[in-house]
Amino acid sequence: MSILEVSKSIIEEALKIGFDEAACKTVSIRRVMAKFSGEPTITQSWIDICTYLYLARDGRITLCEYRTSDIDVVRRRLTDLCRSAKLIEASPIYAPLPKPYGIKPLRLVDEKIVDLVEGRRDLIDYAWRMVDEASSEEAENYAGVLSASLSSKALATSRGVELHEDSTEFECYLRAFSGDGAGQWAYGGRRLDEHSVMEVGRKAGMYAYLSKNAELIEPGVYDVVLSPMIVGNLVNIVGDMASALQVYLGLSFFSRFKPGDRIASEAVSIYDDGVSDSLPRSTGFDDEGVPTRITAIISEGVFENLLHNSKTAFKFNTESTGNAGWVKPEPWNLRFKPGDLKEDELPSTLGEGLILTNNWYTRLQSYVEGSFSTVARDATFIVKGGKVEKAVKGLRVTGRLHELLSSVEYSTDRCYQIKWWEVETPVLAPYILVRGVRISRPT
Asked: Directed axis angle between helix 194-210 and helix 123-136, to 10°?
């Protein structure tokens, strides 16, 4: 039985036992992964099969997830779920599942990645290429991960939606070390871009070598350049806060503004892109069977749109943007519009300030205010007189998201496809130059 037939059969059973509405998404993923520390050493491969259920009765919504290949286990649970549905409160933002749309299929399968998953190519070869590129930049040690996957997704709903989609994904990141210096880079895509994979090793190795013998500097307010790794991390927070449910719950700085308000500089345009054929989470349809699209969240500094599923769209008196998420609307991929600046012009344009290449431990002190802090990790440099002077360390960036976005002066003309565990939603990100950023020390 195909996974679409599996989803359809579960819908039929759910309606038969008393649910008013049902949706079932079944996903099968074949994945191969290589991990390395010092040298590529571990390769793993496995298959995940997961069934996701949306069940509604009298406006009461039940969501479940089952990681099993035994579909009878899921069917047997439906009766208990129907019984327990009587005990929960009706959703304050309930709306019926949408009717079927005409969905244009996306071409999301790269045969190079299929060959990796099925063993006709060796993933370790790409790990060695990354390591060789890092070594060519004088890196001495390495750690990282590469993974390739082939996914099959099927969605059926009680409104008559019946959809199927296959896709591939490739993700890698490498952290390189040279003496006491460290650098990192990452890449994620629907397709295996060998140039970008090699560039991960090259940039990580370069930053590791250049960041040796880093020194402490005084906290203060600095002009800064943020790399695509950091831009990706911060834009993830912006994309998450653009979810209409986050705004409804008071967990977003967007709740302080309305569409049409200026919340960033003209250099900032951020889009959700569900239809890209290169970014890793692209798809032709969301979890309700609504076609995905490109949605402007911020356009030239102006707040344009929130991201909606059918329920938040009903609550906000608008239409779905194709971003369901049964629990909440979510971005698919995020794009930061590039500017005109060349990467080699960054130090001279910055003049005096800091270049930060990586970060972690990003935390929000206030969702409504957008107050955040994040710790600079790996290569960081101080620039004086338009030239990189030396490597520095021990820095934390603090501020408010909309104030940081309002202080963006330039972005580079090239963007990078960033995805790794600090950038879970893929971001097509440039380097950006931001004036007047507060820098403190981690404690």
From this structure: 40
In this structure, which amino acid lies at residue 339? G
> How many Å apart are CA 131 and CA 121, to the nearest integer?
18
Q: Where are the alpha helices (DSSP H) in 102-216?
A: 111-117, 123-136, 194-210
Could you tell me which residues come within 8 angstroms of residue 317 by beta carbon, excluding any fewer than 6 positions away?
A: none
**One pLDDT digit (tens) per residue for the chain, 443 residues:** 899 999 999 999 999 999 999 999 999 999 999 998 887 677 899 999 999 999 999 999 999 999 988 888 888 899 999 999 888 999 999 999 999 999 987 999 999 999 999 999 999 999 999 999 999 999 999 999 999 999 999 999 999 999 999 999 999 999 999 999 999 999 999 999 999 999 999 999 999 999 999 999 999 999 999 999 999 999 999 999 999 999 999 999 999 999 999 999 999 999 999 999 999 999 999 999 999 999 999 999 999 999 999 999 999 999 999 999 999 999 999 999 999 999 999 999 999 999 999 999 999 999 999 999 999 999 999 999 999 999 999 999 999 999 999 999 999 999 999 999 999 999 999 999 999 999 998 87
Domain ranges of the chain: 3-210, 215-440
d(CA 72, CA 164): 21
Cα separation, 277 vs 284, in Å, equals 10
Which are the contacts of 395, defined by CB distance < 8 A and separation ≥ 6?
217, 354, 356, 375, 376, 380, 439, 440, 441, 442
Q: Output the pTM of the full model.
A: 0.96
Question: Residue 244: which residues within 8 A CB-CB, separation 6 or more?
Answer: 306, 307, 308, 309, 312, 313, 315, 316, 328, 329
Distance between CA atoms of 296 and 245, rounded to whole angstroms?
17
Task: Please state which of the four CATH numbers 3.30.2290.10, 3.30.70.2740, 3.40.50.150, 3.30.450.30 is assigned to the domain occupying 3-210.
Answer: 3.30.2290.10
